[in-house]
Specification:
The chain is an alpha/beta fold. The strands form 2 sheets. A 7-stranded mixed beta sheet has the order 6-5-4-7-8-10-9. Helix 4 packs across helix 5 and helix 12 crosses helix 14. It is globular, with a radius of gyration of 23 Å. The termini are far apart. The relative contact order is 0.10.
């Protein structure tokens, strides 16, 4: 072998890659980490808390998984979140990767892990609740710098008006805030329910509805992620600029799906992914927008089908996306 050959970088062979992959996956704790990351992103401190271990130990396991492409990182402001990587379609062992994840997803999480994850979600939710509790007389002024309602109202209404719904008996708006969109929904549906867990916001929504004489709107102090057994299934669920405040977005989509009747639509207005971390402190955002592919993957996992989508121009570095998903209609057989 000549000197140039010795100095050239040595790329691992396919069998070397498989050996490293199998070694990384050949650890029960690392497999549980992959299971926990199925539909959520966690920081290293959160994962260390979930598995009751030191941060240094968790960092080691995450590095091993990252080196073989089983996890990847996503920056949210100054924080790094770990997520599960999808198989690389061009990789020589992508089939092994896919089969591993499919097998893991067939296994239920232990009760202890579910409780530990719930604690993290509760901590995130409390951060958001405490933030909005500070605004007893209105939403943060900086919110208008990000996504003023006037920017997306007309495109959103156009999408809703074009929906082929099984009926227009009931629409549910998750997180209506001060109720700016409730009159528009009230003009299009027989009954409208606004679900919000912020009492001060809901009081202002009720006042706005009363002043507008909206007799078909009901504002309920309730957590949209909790079971709403008293409500009939909705024809349409609307969620405007709320998902980035929720502790577990993928789980939220599953809960929203349970509020829909067959053939019903979920309408999400959200920010596209961005890197402006100041919104965490000034607007109470838990997430810096969302990538469309993540929303689509979470929706599919919730049993939703993709519908239309709209993208509204940048403002102050932010772009708004409106995504529509729908539940499959019931089919009858003779």
């Amino acid at each position: 072998m000549n000197d140039l050959a010795r100095l050239a970088p040595q790329h691992p062979s396919p069998t070397d890659q498989l050996a490293a992959f199998c070694k990384a996956a050949g650890d029960a704790l690392r497999l549980d980490i992959l299971r926990v990351l199925r539909n959520d992103s966690f920081g290293v401190l959160e994962l260390a808390q979930i598995f009751a271990m030191r941060q240094s130990g968790m960092s080691h396991h995450l590095k091993v998984l990252a080196n073989v492409g089983l996890v990847s990182t996503r920056r949210e402001g100054n924080s790094i979140f770990y997520r599960r990587s999808l198989p690389d379609a061009g990789g020589c062992w992508s089939g092994v990767h896919e089969e591993l994840l499919n097998g893991l997803d067939d296994l239920p999480l232990s009760a202890d892990l579910q409780r530990a994850i719930a604690v993290i979600h509760s901590q995130r939710a409390e951060m958001s609740r405490q933030f909005f509790a500070r605004f007893a007389v209105g939403t943060p002024a900086q919110q208008d710098l990000i996504a003023h309602f006037g920017l997306y109202r007309e495109p959103l209404l156009g999408l809703i008006d074009g929906l082929r719904l099984p009926a227009r008996r009931l629409a549910i708006e998750v997180g209506p805030g001060e109720g700016g969109f409730l009159p528009d929904l009230a003009a299009r549906f027989d009954r409208v329910v606004g679900l919000d867990n912020a009492a001060s916001m809901l009081d202002r929504a009720r006042q706005q509805c009363a002043e507008a004489g909206l007799g078909n709107v009901e504002c309920l102090l309730a957590d949209a992620l909790a079971a709403q057994s008293a409500l009939p299934l909705a024809d349409c669920v609307v969620c405007n600029m709320v998902l980035h405040h929720m502790p577990a977005p993928a789980e939220a989509l599953k809960r929203f799906t349970r509020l829909l009747k067959p053939g019903g639509s979920l309408i999400l207005t959200e920010l596209c992914s961005h890197d402006q971390s100041w919104v965490r402190d000034t607007c109470g955002d838990l997430w810096l927008g969302f990538d469309q592919h993540d929303l689509s993957r979470w929706a599919a996992d919730a049993g939703l089908l993709a519908g239309g989508s709209l993208y509204i121009g940048l403002r102050n570095g932010f772009q708004i996306q409106v995504q529509q998903y729908f539940t499959p209609e019931l089919t009858t057989t003779n």
